[in-house]
Amino acid sequence: MTSSDALRKQEQQPAGGPAEQAGPPARLSHREVVIVMSGLMLGMFLGALDQTVVSSALRTIADDLHGLTAQAWVTTAYLVTGTIATPLYGKLSDIHGRRPVYLVAILLFAAGSLLCGCAASIHQLAAFRALQGLGGGGLMSLAMTVIADITSPRERGRYQGWFMAVFAGSSIIGPVVGGVFAGSGMLLGITGWRWIFLVNVPLAAVALAVITRVLRRVPHQPVRHRLDYGGALALAVGVVPLLVIAEQGRSWGWASPAALALYATGAVGLAGFVLIERRMGEAALLPLRLFRVRSFRLGTLLHFIVGIGMFGAMTTLPLYLQLAQGMSPMAAGLAMLPTTVANVAVTLTVGRLIARTGRLKVHLVTGIGCFTAAMLVYATLSVDSPLWYVSIGMLFMGAGLGAAMQTMTTLAQSEVPRTDMGAATASVNFFRSNGGTVGAAAFLSILFSLAGSRIGERLSAAFRHPELRRLAEEPGNARTLSGVLRPNGGLNLEDSAFLHTLNPRLALPFLEGYVAAMRIVFLAGAAVTLLAFLVAALRVPNLKLSDE
């Protein structure tokens, strides 16, 4: 059946309630679905890559723009606008159609990328990253929504698996590409790090051309709703302060006056959002009635919890590779290749199994269990752990996320009316993104809160040996330590570059202290993922997905 036949069949459906009016999914052929996916994957790659490509180059960028202390805002600005925009894209695409809204997302992303490449200060870069985030917020969630539009719940995992593979691949490619550009000096007369953003422009142009063509194949039945501007504003007031404090709380202090003010503002905004959504009913930005659907409720909860562990691990593990194993950002990205290989292999396998059997719970529980096992492996790492042992944890993590992420999305979508598919899929991404923010902030906060005391204990023990005290008094080592050891006995751990110049025997207590703190971080992550495992095992029903 061609897409036009599917559309005619859809238009002949009898009128009924909201779910019936939408009709069954447009049944495109496998070839047509693959053509549509080619455009969606390119757009998704743009958004996913930009979440990781900046991380390895951020220190170089901040030094060049003389904004080292403000560098966190470059990440925070993209995260905040992308998170807030995600549910808006879902509702807009339900009303106006996927294709025009997706094209707007690509244009905003490309414009933000071009401006980022021209930024003259760290604050300009943060502002332009905010614009870029407005586009990036729609690239991934809309791709998932379109696949949900044109496939049955049972088929969905087969195709969504490719998206998960793109996401996993970008997490490895991103730090490598960022490291290459940041270390390139000048390319074609332009500072190397600026190409991190400028290269998005031609890629976006290709994505724009492909999406313009292939999404014509996707029929759309418009949903006649008002746009919930009040809900969008209240959500911004509620979420933005909490995201900012999650990113900045460690430096400001979690109980500082600024933090307390943001907590209060966020609480008022979220309370207002719930009241507005209840009043808006069918036109709500995030319809509260969706949370009465058990599968949607459980899917979003699991995305939030697993998001905490996933982003926390993705933030902490590269630090271990760079600090304890002495790798460069580029080498650390390449060392995480086992995660990508396992993720892609399991994602594609699980997608086919779900399409064949219609069962997803077994894969969901097994996936989260594997991810929990990965956290426990990481919690036993030491300074001199061989790379093969670290890779065992990476294989567990890649396989676990490959099995869990697509099944959580399919679970959340499985019982949602098709008229709400855009809002529902955007909500899934919204909760995962917020979980990721909480995870990254919490893991780093625990790490640096504990690292100082752990390093101090090991330094005190090391300096009891006269040989090490004499080594510390040598001019080169003494000069390096003077920038780290504060007169009041505290430690300045804002920059780890001193570890490259310090004598290895003196650097060892620092490395052991860092790794000891990381073990506690990974144990906390294991506790979080164990909670997700219990929810999946005890609360998720053993659904058999529909083939319609």
From TrEMBL:
Transmembrane segments annotated in the record for this chain: 33-58, 70-89, 101-122, 128-150, 162-183, 195-215, 227-246, 252-276, 296-321, 327-350, 362-381, 387-409, 430-451, 514-538
Transmembrane helix among keywords: yes
Cited Gene3D superfamilies: MFS general substrate transporter like domains, Multidrug resistance protein D
InterPro entries per record: EmrB-like, MFS, MFS_dom, MFS_trans_sf
UniProt keyword list: Cell membrane, Membrane, Transmembrane, Transmembrane helix, Transport
Region of interest: Disordered: 1-26
Chief localization: membrane
Database matches in CDD domains: MFS_Azr1_MDR_like
Occurrences of domain Major facilitator superfamily (MFS) profile (ranges): 36-544
Subcellular localization: Cell membrane
Compositional bias (Basic and acidic residues): 1-11
Topology term for the membrane: Multi-pass membrane protein
Biased composition (Low complexity): 12-26
Protein name (Swiss-Prot/TrEMBL): MDR family MFS transporter
